[in-house]
DNA sequence: GTCGGAATAC
DNA sequence: GTATTCCGAC
């Protein structure tokens, strides 16, 4: 049986395809059958989730001026929230940080040395993790994608899934693009997508060369975005 | 505070 | 595989 902790903390986020502060976090990211390598929410998903919600800004927030970098302002609270989500009441920052350190080798995260409780997401790795099907068919650039998503319609991906994958991918980029854009809170659902081109250009500036990055990552080489 | 090994759980 | 738990080392 599932435990009931889920309802607390981050209500309903795993039950629907919600847009919070204009950023998507689709169902598939939480589902065993579609979330790669995991049966439930992964820590880095959870971190991103907190980062995109204003109500947790006093607990964890993007580091202004540093792309993809975030600061855990209240380690105990983040650990408590994570423990609640995973039904692990004994969770603490020491344990949580151990889990974060396992991301170093996976190149999902790395530590910002010299800054307490500060970590940095690896931009290109998130793309691969969030959008695994593109490993076989990488787009020329996110910029193009944002301008004309309909162009990318791999035959192997059903239409509905495709749109969700797109949203998911946009999520991780937009989350960080928001940071770049001065931590403004975007509004409106993605369908209204009036800001796609705007944030797309921001993303493109920081996160271009997607295909190249994926090629490098799939070979297990060095990451150009580190 | 941070790191990473080791054992363990799911 | 992805944590969780524990812990010694720095």
From TrEMBL:
Residues 179-226 are annotated as: Disordered. Keywords: DNA-binding, Nucleus, Transcription, Transcription regulation. One of its GO terms (cellular component) is nucleus. Residues 193-207 have a biased composition (Basic and acidic residues). SUPFAM superfamilies: Winged helix' DNA-binding domain. It holds the Pfam family Ets. It comes from the Eukaryota. The keyword DNA-binding applies. It is found in: Nucleus. Residues 41-122 form the ETS domain. The keyword Metal-binding does not apply. InterPro entries: Ets_dom, ETS_fam, WH-like_DNA-bd_sf, WH_DNA-bd_sf. One of its GO terms (biological process) is cell differentiation. Belongs to the ETS family. This is ETS domain-containing protein.
């Amino acid at each position: 049986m599932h435990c009931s902790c889920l309802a607390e903390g981050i209500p309903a986020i795993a039950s629907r395809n919600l847009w919070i502060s204009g950023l998507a976090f689709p169902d598939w990211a939480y589902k065993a059958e579609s979330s790669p390598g995991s049966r439930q929410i992964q820590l880095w998903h959870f971190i991103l989730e907190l980062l995109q919600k204003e109500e947790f800004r006093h607990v964890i927030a993007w580091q202004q001026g540093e792309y993809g970098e975030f600061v855990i302002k209240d380690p105990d609270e983040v650990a408590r929230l994570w423990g609640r989500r995973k039904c692990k009441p004994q969770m603490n920052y020491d344990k949580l940080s151990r889990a974060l350190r396992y991301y170093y080798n996976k190149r999902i995260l790395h530590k910002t040395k010299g800054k307490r409780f500060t970590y940095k997401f690896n931009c290109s790795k998130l793309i691969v993790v969030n959008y695994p099907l593109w490993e076989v068919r990488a787009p020329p650039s996110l910029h193009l994608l944002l301008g004309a998503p309909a162009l990318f319609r791999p035959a192997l991906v059903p239409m509905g899934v495709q749109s969700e994958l797109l949203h998911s991918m946009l999520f991780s980029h937009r989350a960080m693009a928001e940071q770049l854009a001065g931590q403004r809170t975007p509004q409106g659902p993605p369908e209204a997508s009036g800001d796609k081109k705007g944030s797309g250009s921001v993303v493109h500036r920081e996160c271009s060369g997607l295909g190249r990055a994926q090629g490098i990552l799939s070979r297990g080489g060095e990451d150009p975005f580190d």
